[in-house]
């Protein structure tokens, strides 16, 4: 499964308890079709202390959400947008560029 959302992209959540929240993608899981977004879908998790001196307790952890429930925010116009693709060059290498469907910005 190919995903048009990558690590470091800014996205907005479209559905679920965190609808309307924006955050940066911390990790993309293309084999599962999920992404982990900073500050979204936070769960409490019990952690045991380890020998390296890390303290145990209850910590907040971002959980994966389905990629269909988030939409990319264009870095140029700042609006939620669908993503188009176009062959082009970036830093002298041929690659597939992502394009904002609203303003035409290539990234």
From TrEMBL:
Role description: One of the proteins that surrounds the polypeptide exit tunnel on the outside of the subunit. One of two assembly initiator proteins, it binds directly to the 5'-end of the 23S rRNA, where it nucleates assembly of the 50S subunit.
Alphabetized UniProt keyword annotations: Ribonucleoprotein, Ribosomal protein, RNA-binding, rRNA-binding
GO biological process: translation
GO terms under cellular component: ribonucleoprotein complex; ribosome
PROSITE patterns: RIBOSOMAL_L24 (PS01108)
Keyword field contains Nucleus: no
Family recorded in the similarity comment: Belongs to the universal ribosomal protein uL24 family.
GO MF terms held by the record: rRNA binding; structural constituent of ribosome
Official protein name in the record: Large ribosomal subunit protein uL24
Subunit structure, interactors included: Part of the 50S ribosomal subunit.
Entries under Pfam families matching the protein: KOW (PF00467), ribosomal_L24 (PF17136)
Gene giving rise to this polypeptide: rplX
Domain of life: Bacteria
Residue span(s) of domain KOW: 4-31
